[in-house]
Design brief:
This is Substrate of the Dot/Icm secretion system. By secondary structure, this protein is an alpha+beta fold. Helix content is 57%, strand content 14%.
């Protein structure tokens, strides 16, 4: 016949066993989660091809035909777009390697001004070569600064002449964009002012209810 002490010991043992079981299950769950985290995520389907990187010739230069010829030889495809002035590359890295080669390795260096397209729309990201043997990349204002610095540092008369022509071209582009931006801002301001003038004045409480005594 068990004594009260025996019953207490049984209950304490049972509680300890339950606690140990809970701890074991918790540890098992943590280990399973850790294993899941280590496993690579399985693809549900075939991988989508990486989007191509496209650049559009802003104004094809006298070297454009040679550039297109090299592009066709390397990638076995034609320029795109209605004007056939868009070059699409497998990646950004491929595009920059191609333009770097055109600007620095060809003799004489090829001249071009290309604008990047994102989702078919032009953005302020350009690659520029004025035939000086250097490639410039960035927004138009960034390129404007880069060309000016290159001109300051260049001693070769022929390269200086190329850089001066390149600087003139970029300066014209930047000025045209700033003028267009100012005009759009002025037009927007004029439209806003016209709306204000056309809006009838709202009656005040005094006008609605008569003059106060």
């Amino acid at each position: 016949m068990s004594t009260p002490e025996d019953e207490v010991r049984k209950k304490m043992k049972s509680i300890a066993e339950e606690a140990a079981e809970v701890a074991r299950k918790k540890q098992q769950a943590l280990e399973e989660e850790a294993q899941k985290a280590k496993k690579p995520i399985q693809d549900d389907g075939p991988k989508k091809p990486a989007p191509e990187t496209a650049f559009k010739a802003e104004k094809p230069s006298s070297d454009w035909e040679k550039i297109v010829e090299d592009f066709k030889k390397k990638y076995n495809k034609e320029p795109e777009g209605p004007a056939k002035n868009i070059l699409s590359f497998p990646s950004e890295k491929d595009a920059m390697a191609f333009f770097e080669s055109q600007a620095t390795e060809k003799q004489p260096p090829r001249e071009f001004l290309m604008q990047k397209l994102e989702n078919g729309k032009p953005v302020d990201d350009h690659v520029f070569s004025c035939g000086s043997g250097q490639l410039f990349r960035g927004g138009l204002k960034d390129i404007q600064t880069q060309v000016a610095k290159a001109l300051e540092a260049e001693k070769d008369p022929q390269k200086r002449a190329k850089l001066e022509s390149g600087k003139e071209l970029i300066d014209q582009r930047v000025a045209a964009i700033e003028k267009s931006t100012d005009m759009r801002a002025k037009m927007g301001s004029m439209k806003e002012q016209a709306k204000i003038e056309q809006t009838p004045p709202q009656p005040t409480d005094t006008e609605e209810h008569g003059h106060k005594l």
